[in-house]
Design brief:
7 helices, seven-stranded antiparallel sheet, about 25% strand, globular, nine-stranded mixed sheet, alpha+beta
Length: about 300
C-alpha cells in the first residue's frame, strides 16, 4: 500500500492561519511547536458528494485533544469550519477529497520545551488533497510489529497527537516485511490496532474489537459499532489475542483514510471464512450509504 503522487494536487492551495498559499509556499516557522517537538494535534476528514463526513465528531475530538495538551487560544469550531470551507472552495473540492487538519501549539519565541515560550496562539493548517481511499479492494496483508502501542502510562492514545514515531516504527517493520500495515499489540500482548487503523474481526456471526485502552477510539470505529448495534449484530469489546485474529472468519480495519478494508492475511496466515456469515459486506454497505447521505453540507 504505497500512495502515489496525484498530479491534481500539484497546484492545490493550503490554508495556514487563514492565508491560502500554493503548495510550494505553504510553510510553518522552524519555531513552530510541530517542528520543535511534534507538539500538535490533527484530524483526517473525508469529503463525499458535497458533504464532510462526521465533521462535528472530528472537531470535538481535536478540541478535546488540544485541551488535554493545555493549548491556549484554540480557535472555535466555527473558525475552524470557516477555514475548511474556504480551503475546499478555493480548490474546487466537493468529492473524493481528504483533509489533513492540523492544530499546533503555535510558534515559540525561542526553541525549547517550555509551553510558556508559546505566546502567539495556535497554528491552524488545512491541507486538502484530491485523494481516494488509500487501500485497494483486494484487501491488505498485516504483520505483527515488535513495537508496542502506547498505553496511558506513556503517551495516552486518546490524545490524537502528531507524535507518530511509535506508529512509524511499526510501519517501517511492515514495509521491510512486504506487508501493507502492522498489527500493534498492547503491553500485555493483546491486539490494540494497526499502525494506522482500528481493527475488528468476525467469528461465527459475531463482531469483536479490542478495548480502546492502548488505541484511539476512532470515529469510523464508533460508526461500525453503532451500525452493528442498530442492525442486531452482536458486538463485543474484549482483549483479543493474535490467535483469535488468525482464526477469525473475517478481519477488517477502519479509519477515515481507508474506510473499511478487509485483511486477507496476518503474519502469513490467510484469513479463511469458515462460516456462512458475511458481516463485512453487510456493515460496509450500510457505512457506504451513510457516507452518501450524512455529514455537513458544504456552503458552496
Amino acid at each position: 500500500m504505497l500512495q502515489s503522487f496525484n498530479p491534481k494536487n500539484e497546484k492545490i492551495l493550503v490554508n495556514i492561519n487563514g492565508k491560502l498559499l500554493p503548495r510550494s509556499e505553504a510553510k510553518v516557522s522552524v519555531f513552530d511547536s510541530s517542528v520543535q517537538g511534534g507538539d500538535a494535534v490533527w484530524e483526517g476528514l473525508r469529503i463525499y458528494n458535497g458533504r464532510i463526513f462526521c465533521l462535528e465528531e472530528h472537531l470535538n475530538r481535536m478540541i478535546a485533544s488540544a485541551h488535554a495538551l493545555a493549548f491556549e487560544n484554540v480557535p472555535s469550531k466555527e473558525e475552524i469550519k470557516k477555514a475548511i470551507f474556504e480551503t475546499l472552495k478555493a480548490n474546487g473540492m466537493r468529492d473524493e477529497s481528504h483533509i489533513r487538519l492540523t492544530l499546533t501549539r503555535g510558534e515559540k519565541i525561542t526553541s525549547g520545551m517550555d509551553i510558556r515560550l508559546n505566546t502567539s496562539g495556535c497554528t491552524l493548517i488545512v491541507l486538502a488533497e484530491w485523494k481516494k481511499p488509500v487501500y485497494g479492494a483486494e484487501g491488505i496483508k498485516l504483520i505483527t510489529s515488535s513495537v508496542r502501542r502506547n498505553s496511558p502510562m506513556n503517551l495516552d492514545s486518546k490524545i490524537h497527537h502528531n507524535n507518530l514515531i511509535n506508529n512509524i516504527l511499526a510501519k517501517i517493520e511492515a514495509n521491510v516485511a512486504g506487508a501493507d500495515d502492522a498489527l500493534m499489540l498492547d503491553n500485555y500482548g493483546f491486539v490494540a490496532e494497526t499502525n494506522a487503523c482500528n481493527i475488528f474481526h468476525c467469528k461465527n456471526g459475531k463482531l469483536y474489537t479490542p478495548h480502546a485502552d492502548a488505541c484511539l477510539p476512532g470515529i469510523t470505529r464508533n460508526k461500525v459499532i453503532d451500525i452493528a448495534l442498530a442492525n442486531s449484530v452482536s458486538i463485543t469489546e474484549k482483549n483479543i489475542s493474535l490467535t483469535e485474529v488468525y482464526n477469525a472468519d473475517e478481519v477488517f480495519t477502519t479509519g477515515t483514510m481507508g474506510e473499511l478494508v478487509l485483511v486477507k492475511e496476518a503474519d502469513g496466515r490467510k484469513i479463511i471464512n469458515r462460516s456462512e456469515e458475511r458481516l463485512y459486506d453487510k456493515i460496509f454497505s450500510i457505512f457506504r450509504k451513510q457516507t452518501e447521505t450524512e455529514g455537513e453540507k458544504l456552503p458552496f
